[in-house]
Amino acid sequence: MQYIKPYNHYKALIAGIDTKVPLLNGSYTTAINFDNAATTPPFLAVLEELMDFSPWYASVHRGAGYKSQFSSKLYEEARESIANFVGADSSEHTVVFVKNTTEAINKLSNRLLEIYKDGVVLSTCMEHHSNDLPWRNKYKVDYIELDKDGRLSLEDLKKKLQHYDGKVKLVAVTGASNVTGYINPIHEIAEMAHGHGAEILVDGAQLVPHTPVDMKSLKDPGHIDYLVFSGHKMYAPFGSGVLIGPKKTFQQGSPDCVGGGTVELVTHDYIKWQPPPSKEEAGTPNIMGVLAIVTSLKMLKSLGMEAIDAYEKSLTQYTLESLKNVPHIQLYGNPHDIKDRVSIIPFNIEGLPHDIIANALSQEGGIAVRNGCFCAQPYVQRLLNVSNQEMQQRIANPTLPHPGLVRVSFGLYNTYDEIDQFISLLCKISVNRKYYLEKYNDG
């Protein structure tokens, strides 16, 4: 891969890019954020848009005053902007605003109960807890297996769809793993699911901010039925997320969260619900959060998702090549193939706990990474070859250390120079493992 020019003009678009953070030795350094898979900093354009809008802020759908009408108009127009960004058809899909991806999946799991009844939901062994736990205790859940590199096994998906013989109602799959960055072939999976009478939900939290996404028309056999994602992972951290799905799903039945804004008519003996999506958005809508997402999507579109994808892949390739020079490094997944991968790299250093590595990077270099299991414990256990017996021992004795990884995840504003600083410090940590083990174990 040819690396893209080292100067990154995207940095000028980000708030807080020059923030100084304290180090253990008492000095200060410019913070480096390699924890973008958890949360991205805001675009300056998002902050500016919210400040410009603030004088016009008013309650959505609640008033006849001009400001309320203006706010309501922006709020409703946002649905079309979001649908266009991910290729949803507004004549077929509805856009429901929620707090985040987790709430979106929980809402959908509740709303589909009346439709799926005793149907089977296929999750996968690589899911974030948010696309696993909401399906438990409501449906019969089974898990699609992984191959040796931690990628989803389409062969196992095929076998399970055939095994359940039409009983599978939903395949719930991540668009891109928050642990390994692997991008799943969502349209191929969708076509397989639809061929057996099932629908597909794509957790797009790690996918939508990094690469082009197209839900396609419901008439296309590879279309995506449900897509969810969050603003806080795409430079708009103001408490808003998105659930997109067929209108018919939300037309029947009662919403899972009820109250103001969800009804047309109420007596003590009768309720007439609003049509979707209003019936799914109880309470005063988060117009600021929605406006933040729309502004972020406009910025991403203007930059070009293909260009962003290419640049972040170049950062990933550069880092993987550089990590080869770090002694005792342990990489997970397939470090040689980045074609179908977003900018996430999990690793460990042999002989050093993951928390010590993360703390040392932060306290000695101002470099923020994530360590642990990233809310995907079964997947990390699989990557680390942790047996069920070992996990049972940890359940019986909570004082035992949890298995985990260190995760580097890039945003469009990160640079090769930041990666060089990271690699330099990581080499120092790895060469002096005993020193760091003693230093950070002592607190």
Automatic annotation (TrEMBL):
**Domain Aminotransferase class V positions:** 32-422
The cofactor required is: pyridoxal 5'-phosphate
Question: Would the keyword Lyase be found if you checked this record's keyword annotation?
Answer: yes
- According to its UniProt entry, this protein's organism is Natronincola ferrireducens
List, alphabetically, the SUPFAM superfamilies matched: PLP-dependent transferases
Q: Name it.
A: Selenocysteine lyase/Cysteine desulfurase
Which family, according to UniProt?
Belongs to the class-V pyridoxal-phosphate-dependent aminotransferase family. Csd subfamily.
Reactions this protein catalyses: (sulfur carrier)-H + L-cysteine = (sulfur carrier)-SH + L-alanine
Q: Which UniProt keywords apply?
A: Lyase, Pyridoxal phosphate
